[in-house]
Amino acid sequence: MADESSPYKMLPVDSIKVPDLRVTSVLDADLLAELEESITRQGILQPLQVEQVGEELWLVDGLHRLLVAKRLGWEEIPCIISPGTQEGVLLKNLVVNRQRGKSNPAQEAKLIRYLREEGGLPLERIASITGLSVSWTRRLHAISFLPPGVLDLVGAGKLGASIALELLPLKEEAIL
Q: What is the pLDDT of residue 167?
């Protein structure tokens, strides 16, 4: 499928690692079925974005396409590969899904908290890299401290991020 001049390479489906912590576009069952039908008929029209971190290949964008390819029994999948870092994979994943407009604010909050606590990135730096405002980055970071059940409601779209922010001053027992 790909030749030497192609901007992408065919990679073994099983060679692509998916970070446990990531932002995933929200697709309902009908859109997922439509995606699978499209891939079955036309193949993957947009290659996955993958970063090489050391010897490992980490998915930045294309989880639903990867999962469909696995369900269909594909052995290889088209990918655009670039060199990267573990933090870079997560930051790009956040940006791509926000640009798509159907991201999960609870996942964004968890990812920002991880980048802050484990990656040592200041919130201002995360905002600068992702293009988010500093105030929104701070709000998402704050939301990450909500009790898991409340964060699940935010992730499911049953509780807006703005309302979740208003719950922050309450004690955990009062929220549950």
A: 82
